[in-house]
Amino acid sequence: MSHHSKRVASADLAFYAAAMKMPCSPMIEEMRTPRIYHPSPLAAASEIALTEQAATHVRRVLRMKEGQRLLLFDGSNQIFNADIVLLNKKMLRVRLAECRNEDRESPLTLHLGQVISRSEKMAFSIQKSVELGVTTITPLFSERCGVQLSDERLLKKIQQWQQIAIAACEQCGRNRIPEIRMAIPLPDWCAEQDNDLKLTLHPHARNSLYTLPESCHRARLLIGPEGGLSDNEIALASGCGFTDISLGPRTLRTETTALCAITALQLRFGDLG
Length: 273
Description:
alpha/beta, 2 domains, 7-stranded parallel beta sheet, 37% helix, disordered N terminus
């Protein structure tokens, strides 16, 4: 590294250190405050012990100390200021102060039916789908699904995916936790009765986002596996009221397809843009 580069790097570090010490607005201060999900209902002006998992995260990962502040939420759209009153190797207790309602949910209720993909891809799809506002995710088995799971392993996967959804909410600021439903066969999911707008992706579809109805408040989105849906599954979905739409001429990977479709739907009917 040149002497000039070293001087620039040192100046950048000095500026960053000074900025971290500067007073900031309440909104920025809140953005810096770690958010933790608590699975039981919370009440203002109470003192509680956090879960062991949350305690470990706060102590080992966040390296917080007594007297510092957290934001807690319990899935009810309320968030609570919480001060750490006891922190040691065995316990983490916080005192809850005031609470407030904060609704960050999209006006579009979106149910994602995602055929199960390989471990990292499925985790990625769930994490990013939650960040983009999906309300419910149902993992699906299809003809070309390349993942085989025993009942025991499937249950553990569902629990892992739900934890990924919770962590995504902690990171992105959502105060309601999307549901990760038990995995079911694709035909069973397609046959479920509701009044949602039903959509699936196909690169050669005649329809696009701009041929859909002007408004939509509820939608189901079907995303196939790495090898795509079979002709039989495409016909079955069509018979269940699903409309094929195209996102363009390129063939996308399954995890890319989900994120592109969700983003486009949120731009058209939701709260992006």
